[in-house]
Amino acid sequence: MDEFPTRARAALAAQGVSLRGAARILNYDVSYLSRVLNGKQRPSLSLAKGLDKLLGTQGELTEAAARERRTAGARSSEHQPVLRQEHAGDFAHTIREMSRHLIALDNKMNGLPIAETAASSYKSVHRRIGEGIHTQREERDIQSAAAELAEISGWALFNAGRFDAAWRFNQEALFLSNLCGDRSIELISLQNQAMLSGWVGRSREELAISRSVLDRGPLVPTVEAIFRAREAQGLAGSGLGSEAQRTFGRARSLLQEGAPEDGPHWAWWITEQEIDRQQGRALHESGESRQAIPILERALTPAGTAEVGYRNVAAVRLLACLLKEKSWQAAEEEGTRLIHAINEMSSVVSLNLLSAVAREGDELPGAPMGVRDVLHHIADALKEDPYAF
Predict the structure, then answer these.
(1) 247: Cβ–Cβ under 8 A, 6 or more apart, which residues?
(2) How many CB atoms lie within 10 A of CB 59?
(3) What are the backbone dihedrals phi and psi of residue 181, each rounded to the nearest 5 degrees, phi first?
(4) pLDDT of 40-86, one tens digit each?
């Protein structure tokens, strides 16, 4: 397995394209691409075709990859992984392709529902990861890919409001990432675990998880920033509001030291808007509505390619804060925007929060008729048949 990596590395160098840059452009996991370019894993034909197109090598890399596959020969059936009788490297790549597809769907429009698809996909993979005979390197690669899929499933189940199931899948992601030594997936799984702990009211646990990661260090600035934000939420939930706001400020300053592309592949969503969403949540949950309003408004500014499917949760919290502060005109305008977004919102967590906000807002004394009408429209829209056109 020497021809392909040698040719690919030379072509990358000739075009001035870095390993991380190629992985980002082609939407491949950087660790997978690194293993391929170092001759430690056989390239898939789809990767070879993508590199040919990126580097203008006119099919040379695809031909080299095909020759390597022919030279390697077909493995005997008893040594094949079960999933489509693929080579172990292709099996791991197939899992990663599924993960990328799920992430794309999760962030289309206002987020498409992926929880059931993600969970069933992981269960299918889980049945197969113990089958087949692989080298230790191949087995770790499969475990790493499966850990990422379990992590995505855990996040999706959280977003669907299925917290117990989310916890189980996240534990599976942590188990597999530790088993194969994938620190990157371990970190995002711990981030998710801290988030889930905070959401179900276990703020001290959110704080403990965050600090356990920060104490182990060092972390690239982007990753440290998100764990500082989680630490801040844990502090706020524990009644330490002043310390929480200082920690949010530290998280923001860390983002100035690095960009998402400098961190692991999953860090693309860690932006100033994400820190604003988290700080806005902490202030809203602490009853600091007036302070939360400008931060939540900032969280709703476009984030370019880093837009996330769950971004409307900030709009829901903003509506709640505007209602509490009796900013009636602004609340009516924000509520009207949310009415139009409801049909595209798939986050059960966000929809449940919106339902509670509409119900509580309607009971506020002094709310003008226009505001009440908007809240009634929100309540009606939430009750509509989701499958009606």
Answers:
(1) 228, 229, 231, 232, 235
(2) 12
(3) 75, 25
(4) 777 878 788 989 999 999 999 999 988 877 775 443 333 333 344 45
10 Å CB burial of residue 387 (0-12, 13-18, 19+) is: exposed
Average pLDDT of span 168-182? 96
Nearest one of 292, 273, 271, 294 to 225, comparing CA atoms: 271
Return the closest-CA partner of residue 194 out of 236, 243, 244, 230.
230
DSSP 176-194: HHHHHT-HHHHHHHHHHHH
User: Residues 295, 244: contact at Cβ < 8 Å?
Assistant: no
Which one is predicted more confidently, 31 or 79? 31
Indicate the helix (H) or strand (E) that contains 361. Answer: helix 348-362
Please give the pLDDT value at position 79. Answer: 35
| pLDDT at res. 254 | 95
Where is average pLDDT lowest: 17-31, 158-172, 339-353? 17-31
- Among 69-83, 265-279, 336-350, 356-370, which is the least confidently predicted range? 69-83
- pLDDT of residue 387 exceeding 90: no
Tokens of 21: 């840059």
Token pair, residue 100, equals 């990328």
Task: Say which residues have a Cβ less than 8 Å from residue 341's Cβ, sequence separation at least 6.
Answer: 110, 312, 315
pLDDT-derived band at 325, boundaries 50, 70, 90: very high
DSSP string across 142-179? HHHHHHHHHHHHHHHHHHTT-HHHHHHHHHHHHHHHHH
C-alpha–C-alpha distance, residues 330 and 293, integer Å? 11
CA distance from start to end of the chain: 54
Tokens of 60: 């040379």
Please state, in angstroms and rounded to a whole number, the distance separating the CA atoms of residues 152 and 141: 17
DSSP 220-261: -HHHHHHHHHHHHHHHHHTT-HHHHHHHHHHHHHHHTT--GG
- Residue that has been written with the tokens 């209602």 in this structure: 323
* pLDDT band (50, 70, 90) for residue 388: low
What is d(CA 88, CA 219) in angstroms, rounded to the nearest whole number?
31
